[in-house]
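Example (one chain per record):
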Amino acid sequence: MPENSSFRTLPWFVRPAARAWRCAPASADVRGFHSSLPDYSPTPLTELRAAAGELGVGRVFVKDESCRLGLPAFKALGASWAVHRTLAEQAANGEEPAPLTLVTATDGNHGRAVAHMARRLGQRAHVFVPQGVHPRAVAAIVAEQAKVTEVPGPYDDAVCLAAEAANAPDAVLVQDTAWPGYERIPGWTVEGYSTLCAEIDEQLTAEGVAEGPDLVSIPVGVGSLAQAVVTHYRSRPTGHAPALLSVEPEAAACVLESLTRGEPVSVTTGETAMVGLNCGTPSSIAWPYLRAGLDAAVAVADADSARAAGDLATAGVSSGPCGAATLAGLRTMLTGIGAEERRTALGLGPSSVVVLLSTEGTAANPHATTDH
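Predicted structure:
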């Protein structure tokens, strides 16, 4: 349905029927693979009691991805599984190839994760970085022994250049966004994120919430993580189905715009501190899941994300602007003019349980500091 005409001042979208939609589950092999890695351990699920009181819900938890497989963001989950599957496929072909060059475009975290896996596995990496990524984020990718090409344009331009470079001999594109004709490796990347959701199930059960959350707030760039979360919660044939909320920067709300129009569209992105979410086009494989499985979408301002990051820091959670966007998005939906209608649309009440996905620590995004 289109954006509710009563609240046109707030950029949001709602479709309550999404909780009835169902899809196939992710691969059951992913969690076992991650568990076999020497530096694997579940990331924390931290309760935010002050946020629950402020927002009038029962309990709020934040999934803290500030340290995941030795890196300061969740992207290591998808990159590690995608690289593993890519190299396994090469070996299954019976070839003894020279080291591959793993090519990708990134706003920071995905490229660093691909480069990290390449270095650990004796492969090479070539990472294309768009305009606006902080030099320290670029330096972190270089420190993983990757070749870095800085692109004087937006993320979508970097993706195009990476795809061209991957046509070279002994090179393969390991991208976390998909388009027609390039969907298998992005699909593996999405599968990798399912480990995060499985951990949340176990951690909520330990907290006495065995039925699962009532709402999950998800930061969205091209929509790959949101696709993984939709897949996890919408692949259950029975039981409680939570509302799923996507949160984007106002400067790059491609999923919100696509949902509002009813078809995938590209938007011209602007500048935002939420650099990892500064994407103009939804992933082609994510779009059907976002269209059918998201209950709501909202766009937030940089100032609101910065405030949320500060509040998370006070609670002991290291969160960059992208990760903190989920708290900002929840606040936007549950406060201000029209909040009761939005709360009702999301099915939330005073005993509801909310999970926020904080996808990066402050170390992942230097824009979180005052050093620009």
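Caption: The longest helix spans residues 75-92.
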